[in-house]
Write a structure and sequence with these properties.
Helices cover 22% and strands 44% of the residues. With 102 residues, the chain is α+β, with helices and mostly antiparallel strands. It has one domain (22-99): ACT-like. Chain A, domain 2 (Alpha-Beta Plaits, 2-Layer Sandwich), CATH 3.30.70.1150.
Length: 102
């Protein structure tokens, strides 16, 4: 858009310059759950960030007594960090995040 388009609202004046206001990235959050009592809290956190989640897969590894969850997100960096951090703070939960280069 060559000329910014003004948007008027009582008490505010915005100029739209086009483009995305929030750049997002694709990331994979790997989650290993050693303490299954954290499962409900994990699901609550994932639900909180549901609008950013592209897909998830959970694998119970019964022989080792752990669960492995992979979550693919498309979100701004701060949202990805917040999600990973909240999950990683839970007892018996370890996370690692891998970002795409896109």
């Amino acid at each position: 858009m060559k000329n910014p388009m003004p948007i008027k609202h009582p008490g505010f004046y915005f100029i739209y310059k086009g483009g995305s206001q929030m750049d997002t990235r694709i990331a994979l959050i790997g989650i290993i759950v050693d303490d299954l009592s954290s499962a409900e809290k994990i699901n609550l956190i994932l639900h909180e960030f549901g609008k950013y989640i592209v897909g998830r897969m959970g694998i119970p590894y019964r022989e080792k007594g752990v669960s492995i969850i992979s979550v693919v997100v498309d979100a701004p960096n701060d949202v990805i960090s917040s999600l990973s951090g909240k999950l990683g703070m839970l007892r018996g939960v370890n996370t690692k995040t891998v970002y795409s280069k896109i």
